[in-house]
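*** Residues and shapes ***
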Amino acid sequence: MTAVGDGRGPDEAASVRTAPVGLDVLRLLGVRATGHHGVFDHERRDGQEFVIDAVVHLDTIPAADDDDLAQTVHYGVLAEQLVAAVERDPVDLIETLAERLAALVLSHPAAARVELTVHKPSAPITVPFGDVSITVVRERA
C-alpha cells in the first residue's frame, strides 16, 4: 500500500510511517470511583469519590496494522481495573493511590509511559476549592 501521491513503493512508505517520532497517546479521562482513602476516620468510614485521568503513551502502529486489540491498551478493561484499584485496600495518601494506579497502567504490555492524575474533589479542606489532585509520570524501565 503506497501513501497517496508520495510516489514511493510499499516498503518506502511503511518505513516512513514507522520511523521513531515518538509515542502515540491514549487518554482515558474522568474515570470515577468511590474509595475509602485518607488520613481521617470519616474518609475511611464514609468513602468519597475519586476521579482518575490516565494519559497512556504507547506505539499504536502494530495494533492498527493488524487491527488487533490485543496489541494496544483496551481502554474499557483499563477503566474497570482503575475503578477496582481505587475501591480496594485503603491508603492514607492520594500519592500512594496514584503510584498504585500508574503501576497498574504500566502492567499493560503496550503501555510505555503514563501520566496519571488522581483528583479528590471532596477533600476535607475547610476553605472553598475547586479540586485537589496529584499527577505522577512513570515509564517502563
About this structure: The chain is about 35% helix and 30% strand.
